[in-house]
TrEMBL record:
The keyword Transferase applies. It comes from Weissella paramesenteroides ATCC 33313. This is Galactose-1-phosphate uridylyltransferase. Pathway: Carbohydrate metabolism; galactose metabolism. It catalyses: alpha-D-galactose 1-phosphate + UDP-alpha-D-glucose = alpha-D-glucose 1-phosphate + UDP-alpha-D-galactose. It is found in: Cytoplasm. The lineage of its organism: Bacteria, Bacillati, Bacillota, Bacilli, Lactobacillales. Its EC number is 2.7.7.12. Keywords: Carbohydrate metabolism, Cytoplasm, Galactose metabolism, Nucleotidyltransferase, Transferase. Belongs to the galactose-1-phosphate uridylyltransferase type 2 family. One of its GO terms (biological process) is galactose metabolic process. Its main location: cytoplasm.
Length: 501
């Protein structure tokens, strides 16, 4: 135990002042919170008479206070737990946060989400510094600008952490990383600490949902909406209704759901959840390819977009009309087959193979629901999926094409940072082909044959070629290709829609 010097004492007072600024507690609680911080630091006293300020970033203050401790953790997970224990002292409790959020929402919804995002960034529930490490660029294609990111934000585990996780006992609590039981969870070697984790609770379709901002955000104000009922991902009328309810309550955000089948779905199918945020994705900027007339839904506008995946946009000033028309399209697609294009509603075993990836937004006074047609089929030639990235592009992207990629934002793995650097070195004769990762070699040789790279242009060239590959990834995942056969197939489906009304 120790006494703190003036600099350390000032850091404590400033740290505690942040709690007041975040409306976690009033000035009356500052002594109590100060003593909680001292106990956490293993300190007995501090210099008296100092006043707390919020001029210094809360994360920087946490760094200063962590340095005061006489600890030397060997594993990052334990250090992370220790840090969140400290930050939790100044974080609003769930009840306090909910009350302040609702108070602000009644004044202005924008104020409410701004406050919640401010809290989330301040207490490191949104990992601002880590996210800043991501590499991002755009690729101009015939479908418009495609967004590419190499995701470097999630910290890699050390060898010690990997070994510890492998030998740790299996736990069913919390059941998933999305579950509501993560709120305030201490964390373990296999589960991230969530002591400062907070949900904003909602009621959608008579079910309890909660939402929070994603720690490693892929786009602006990236939020996750979670069904507390713990049911698998599903698709249909209730899904579309809830998406409309969310954009009605939060018109500043788009919100979408991953599909509910494994090949065309997201990484977590066991827990129903949606993703939202303040971002205009490339797909939402796509031109209209053709309009679709649905006589039974005359108050609804339906269009197919000029997009590498088959995307319908359904819009109206009436959310219920959008839901009804979208459900009609989904149900028609669910049972539709086209043998000419290897499109099969069910597998040989009779399993359902058709679903959609839906995305909702409220724009210019209208409700919009984008429906991207998905087919989960496999074949002897394409065992990983007929409408999945094919083998020749998997050196860049081999994972499922989920909600975010569907909309034109590539989330590429961190491994590519070093691998693409070797490709660049090869293109300007600073590395041999043997030094390039095996999966990239044929691609790198083709680029070298087609392009003249120099040290000043090589990065731009490689990024452009990555963009081309990702466009191919999306085209592989599209059920109707951008060619004559694809257009003929799309026309057949649209004709089927008309006959199914």
């Amino acid at each position: 135990m120790k006494s703190l010097n003036e600099e350390q004492s000032q850091a404590v007072m400033d740290f505690v002042a942040w709690g007041v600024a975040m409306h976690a507690y009033s000035e009356a609680e500052t002594v109590y919170r100060t003593n909680l911080v001292l106990a956490k630091l293993g300190a007995t006293s501090l210099v008296q008479g100092l006043t707390g300020h919020t001029d210094t970033n809360l994360s920087d203050l946490a760094d200063q206070l962590i340095a005061v401790q006489d600890t030397d953790f060997e594993m990052g997970w334990q250090a992370a737990i220790d840090r969140t224990e400290l930050l939790n002292i100044v974080t609003p409790t769930p009840d306090v946060l909910a009350a302040e959020f609702e108070r602000l929402y009644k004044v202005d919804p924008e104020q409410a989400v701004k406050y919640y995002y401010f809290i989330s960034e301040s207490v490191e529930n949104v990992k601002v510094n880590d996210i800043a490490r991501n590499i991002a660029f755009t690729h101009n294609s015939k479908y418009g600008d495609i967004e590419i990111t190499i995701n470097l934000s999630k910290p890699e585990k050390t060898t010690a952490e990997i070994k510890a996780a492998a030998s740790a006992p299996k736990s069913t609590y919390p059941p998933t990383a999305l579950d509501y039981t993560n709120e305030g969870y201490l964390g373990t070697v296999t589960a991230a600490p969530r002591l400062t984790h907070r949900f904003i609770r909602e009621n959608f379709s008579n079910e309890t949902w909660g939402w929070h901002y994603s720690p490693y955000a892929y786009f602006e104000e990236h939020a996750i909406f979670v069904n507390f009922k713990r049911q698998p991902m599903q698709m249909g009328l209730r899904t579309f209704t809830r998406l409309m309810q969310i954009v009605t309550r939060y018109p500043m955000y788009m919100v979408g759901s991953n599909a509910d089948l494994p090949i065309v779905g997201g990484s977590i199918l066991s827990q129903e959840h949606y993703q939202a945020g303040r971002h205009a994705f490339p797909m939402m900027k796509a031109d209209v390819k053709q309009k679709v007339a649905l006589s039974e839904y005359e108050n609804v506008e339906v269009a197919v977009l000029n997009w590498p995946m088959t995307a319908f946009r359904v819009s109206s000033t009436d959310a219920a009309d959008v839901v009804a028309a979208s459900e009609f399209i989904r149900r028609a697609w669910e049972k539709y087959s086209d043998e000419k294009l290897m499109i099969h509603a069910t597998s040989a075993e009779g399993d359902r193979q058709h679903t959609v990836t839906p995305i909702a937004q409220f724009k210019d006074g209208k409700y919009e629901l984008y429906l991207v047609l998905r087919d989960n089929g496999t074949s002897e030639d394409y065992p990983m999926g007929i409408f999945h990235p094919h083998a020749d592009v998997q050196h860049i992207k081999q994972e499922n094409i989920g909600l975010i990629e569907v909309m034109g934002l590539a989330i590429l793995p961190a491994r590519l940072l070093k691998e693409l650097q070797k490709v660049e070195d090869f293109l300007i004769d600073r590395a041999s082909l043997d030094e390039v990762a095996e999966g990239h070699r044929a691609w790198a040789q083709q680029i070298k044959q087609d392009r003249q790279a120099s040290p000043t242009t090589v990065t731009e060239i490689v990024q452009e070629e990555v963009g081309k590959v990702f466009v191919r990834v999306l085209e592989d995942a599209g059920v109707y290709k951008d060619d004559a056969n694809g257009q003929a197939g799309l026309d057949r489906f649209i004709k089927y829609l008309a006959s199914a009304e």
